[in-house]
């Protein structure tokens, strides 16, 4: 258990309802394995991991990856503030997709109110799907849409740029 520099924190749903297990993985380059399982998805659960892991090992952590659940963020900042906290890509992309959809809906409404051509109508999935997953027809429609100077287009381009990182 020595030499652990990077961990990942996640949760899985188990049984029915909102019952979760908190999982902590070792995610070093040389070794990836499950380290710890805690019942529930609560502050006290993650605090329990850090108690089990110990102050010395926690102090040697360089990286911690987790989602954006606020209790995780707070516990990690408090217990392992020296480690670089990396937010997981899946959850960042989910937030970006939600933001694009909100911008698109608002901009569609504004264009309609101004009496302009509703170029964003039926464009939701064009903007949310990965370009490589679009059909040829959808790809053509997206290419036309991207020629417009809209906030929605700018949001989409930012999301795609992030995907390349």
From TrEMBL:
Domain Transposase IS204/IS1001/IS1096/IS1165 DDE: 7-163
Protein name as annotated: Transposase
């Amino acid at each position: 258990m020595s030499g652990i520099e990077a961990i990942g924190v996640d949760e899985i749903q188990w049984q029915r309802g909102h019952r979760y297990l908190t999982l902590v993985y070792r995610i070093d380059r040389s070794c990836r394995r499950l380290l710890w399982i805690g019942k529930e998805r609560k502050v006290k659960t993650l605090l329990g991991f850090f108690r089990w892991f110990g102050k010395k090992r926690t102090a040697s952590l360089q990286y911690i990856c987790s989602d954006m659940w606020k209790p995780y963020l707070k516990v990690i900042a408090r217990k392992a503030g020296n480690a670089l906290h990396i937010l997981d890509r899946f959850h960042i992309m989910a937030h970006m997709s939600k933001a694009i959809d909100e911008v698109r809906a608002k901009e569609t409404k504004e264009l309609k109110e101004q009496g302009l051509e509703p170029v964003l109508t039926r464009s939701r999935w064009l903007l949310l799907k990965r370009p490589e997953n679009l059909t040829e027809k959808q790809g053509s429609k997206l290419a036309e849409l991207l020629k417009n100077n809209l906030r929605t287009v700018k949001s989409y381009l930012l999301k795609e740029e992030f995907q390349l990182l």
